[in-house]
Amino acid sequence: MSEQYEPNIVAFLCNWCSYAGADLAGTSRVHYTSNLNVIRVMCSGRVNPLFAVNALQQGADGVLVSGCHPGDCHYMEGNYYARRRFALMRELLEFIGVEPERFNMSWVSASEGAKWKDVVEEVVEKARKVGPFDQFRRNKINW
Amino acid sequence: MNNNKPKIGVYVCHCGVNIAKTVDIEAVRSYAESLPYVKVARNYSYMCSDPGQLLIKEDIAEEGLNRIVVASCSPRMHELTFRKTLAEGGLNPYYLEMANIREQCSWVHEDSEEATSKARKLVAAAVAKARLLEPLEEKEVEVEPATLIIGGGIAGIQAALDIAGAGFKVYVVEKTPSVGGKMSQLDKTFPTLDCSACILTPKMVDVASHPNIELLTYSQVEDVQGYVGNFEVKVRKKARYVDIDKCTGCGICAQECRLAGRIPSEYEAGIGKRGAIYLPFPQAVPAKFTIDPESCLYLTRGKCGKEPKCVEHCSLGAIDFEQQDEFVEFKVGAIIVATGYDVFDASRKPEYGYQDYDNVLTSLELERLVSASGPTGGEIVLGKGEEAFVPKEVAFIQCVGSRDASCGNEYCSRVCCMYTAKLAHLIKEKVPDSNVRVYYMDVRAFGKGFEEFYDRVRREGVRYIRGNPSEVFKRDGKLVVKAEDTLTAKPLEDEVDMVVLSVGLEPRKDTREIIDLLRLSQSSDRFYLEAHPKLAPVDTATDGVYLAGCAQGPKDIPDTVAQAKGAASSALILLASGKVNIQAQISVVNEATCRGCGYCVEICPYGAIEMGEVNRFGHIVSVAKVNEALCKGCGACVAGCFSGSIQQKSFKDRQILPQIAVLGVVK
């Protein structure tokens, strides 16, 4: 391949830790790739694992869910729920033939702007390696 | 107003050049205009400014807009600002959606084309969600007119006095037997050389005697439940084994204790001794004795001579070995965390020989040594008995445990440069023929009167040598400081009588406990994280919980007092208004489809969901019901619901799925 594939990642960030961490990356002018777009939710526990399937279906090449570090959840245990749900979902997706590289989870706290950059770069790099995902793809938005 | 058909207004902010420099604003604006349901798309240099907000309000009135999308900075920054704008424009504030094209776009991407295309996507996703937003109602709850302050140091004391002075009830919970905190251990305070005890003791007494303040010393917060305005607090009052109603603080028990003078005193930083029954220091408030259960012979071995000496000598019968921990429960509206700091443990820098050599002291130990109330009565004497001597050659080593990645503390502790200057001055004052030198990296004399004080100390003959020593060792019975003077690039070995390690400030070891109690976060330096480093330095991410003093980061006394007053004012805003709006973006159950499995009840971390009954076509069926005051709006139940019957307002599945679709499909 002469030109590398630029994947499209959809990320779900919790308001209190990861979204604030991503904001801090901005405030500190940390530069990173623009392939990842963020949807803000209040807690990673809100993220239904089916959102990930939906994202792949709608044309994303990878998904990231990021929350507070285990034990630091603003809502006490939301990130534990997220962790369990996504561990199960990842296995299911692998079973039906979706590369596990497309499916990521991370813990980024509100003070970890630099870590957020690393997470983004890593997730995008993984998706770049496995290339475009078109098994489930839809191509039109149904407004 | 007709809200059935969405009429969306999109406002793209330049933020001066912050966004406009990398994002092609006009391209984003014209793209937004082409999106379905968008009636108006405008751009403006600063949307958050008055004219910017006016633009939105005018469009609501003239164009009949009923949904607003602001593409600007992070919603964590200005969501509340624009919600207010909507409300002033006559629209429900929850008809707002923001696209974060600054923190997560223009500031993190260098390439203008990439940033513009990402901004377009983010705006499209926001429009897709905005279309489906619903009006929400903010519910008001009453605020319990009381405050809990955790920590009775100078920060806690100041905050307590301010709040109590305004006429509200305050509970001060202090872990140790007396209020006063670290400030009570200091001799003088820089740069004015005020006697620390003289300015602190009156405040300690005020706290104890104020009718609005309930002082719970030797106590610990065990549990906090509830939410802003209505916290339920449970405090453990540890057994003192002394009936404080009977104890008059005469101190005969402490003189008679079989262990008197044998237990290292916490107050004297370990260089002075106390007994198993003790008063931490003479001015302690309350002036009541406490038995240390870890050293008391009777409590550890069950036997102390024939009869414990304290029992024998207490004519008031105040000693009570049967005493048990008590629990106190109360309600408060606000909580201030003023837990302070720990002093860096100098043995973690073994190269300075703190554990190996007697005459290597920490600055806090020297503080007790120069203090008139200290174990030597303020005389600077090292060694005991015949070996006692007055140190003439003194070296200070700066930044021990601060600005040092090797021990995990990259931050500056902010007070060490100045307390060293103060201690150096005190040594020169008490031992005029002494030679004092300070090994430093940089001198940070940034506060009011600091630089002048630093100059004064240097004029008094204290030498400052730029260079961090590599080690302290002993040669022929003398301490030797090995360093390099980095200004002259000369290595040197300096023979001294006493080495003082200027230890930094560290987060407390029990930081974790408070985090678990109050759902706080830590910043990368491990101190508690404030809600915003500039604009909300005393607030936390948990509503109704505020920070004061060194719990938030190293501070000197004036800064601590200022912050305590800030935290008190934040708490007072809450208490004085008497009402608080609670989270509107909470969960809601569709009773028509809920199958009553009760799984959400198990998930909810707040116990906010209960099973109830409804009449469904003549059948009584069980469905989930959300207690709106308890729900915090995390949405964990939503993702767990099998039938999609429970949804989080503003974060419903049908509001998030279109966002996903846009981010996936739009190129």
Blueprint of the fold:
The complex is a heterodimer of chains A (143) and B (667).
Chain A: E1 9-14, H1 18-27, E2 36-41, H2 49-57, E3 62-67, H3 78-95, E4 103-107, H4 113-130
Parallel strand pairs in A: 1-2, 1-3, 3-4
Chain B: E1 8-13, H1 25-33, E2 38-44, H2 50-63, E3 67-72, H3 75-88, E4 96-100, H4 102-106, H5 112-130, E5 139-142, E6 146-150, H6 154-165, E7 169-173, E8 188-189, E9 194-195, H7 196-209, E10 213-216, E11 219-227, E12 230-237, H8 252-256, E13 263-264, E14 273-274, E15 277-278, E16 290-291, H9 297-301, H10 309-313, E17 326-332, E18 334-337, E19 342-343, E20 360-362, H11 363-370, E21 393-400, H12 416-430, E22 435-440, H13 450-459, E23 463-466, E24 471-475, E25 478-485, E26 490-496, E27 498-503, E28 505-506, H14 511-518, E29 545-547, H15 557-577, E30 579-582, E31 587-589, H16 599-603, E32 609-616, E33 619-626, H17 636-640, E34 646-648, H18 653-665
Parallel strand pairs in B: 1-2, 1-3, 3-4, 6-7, 6-18, 7-10, 18-29, 20-27, 21-22, 21-27, 22-23
Antiparallel strand pairs in B: 5-30, 8-9, 11-12, 12-17, 13-14, 15-16, 19-28, 24-25, 25-26, 31-34, 32-33
Describe the structure concisely:
The complex is a heterodimer of chains A (143) and B (667). With 143 residues, chain A is an alpha/beta fold.
Describe this structure in words.
The complex is a heterodimer of chains A (143) and B (667). With 143 residues, chain A is an alpha/beta fold. Helix content of chain A is 38%, strand content 16%. Chain A has helices at residues 18-27, 49-57, 78-95, 113-130, and strands spanning 9-14, 36-41, 62-67, 103-107. In chain A, strands 2-1-3-4 form a four-stranded parallel β-sheet, with helices on both faces. In chain A, β3 (62-67), α3 and β4 (103-107) form a beta-alpha-beta unit. In chain A, α1 (18-27) packs across α4 (113-130). The radius of gyration of chain A is 15 Å and the shape is globular. Chain A starts with 8 loop residues before the first strand and ends in a 13-residue tail after the last helix. In chain B, α12 packs parallel to α13 (450-459). The model of chain B has no long low-confidence stretch (mean pLDDT 94). In chain B, α1 links the parallel β1 and β2 (38-44). By secondary structure, chain B is an alpha/beta fold. In chain B, 28% of the residues lie in helices and 24% in strands. Chain B folds into five domains: 8-136, Rossmann fold (3-Layer(aba) Sandwich), CATH 3.40.50; 146-237 and 327-341 and 510-579, FAD/NAD(P)-binding domain, CATH 3.50.50.60; 252-313, no CATH class; 342-506, FAD/NAD(P)-binding domain; 587-649, 2-Layer Sandwich (Alpha-Beta Plaits). At the A-B interface, α1, β2, α2 and α3 of A face α3, α4, α5, α17 and α18 of B.
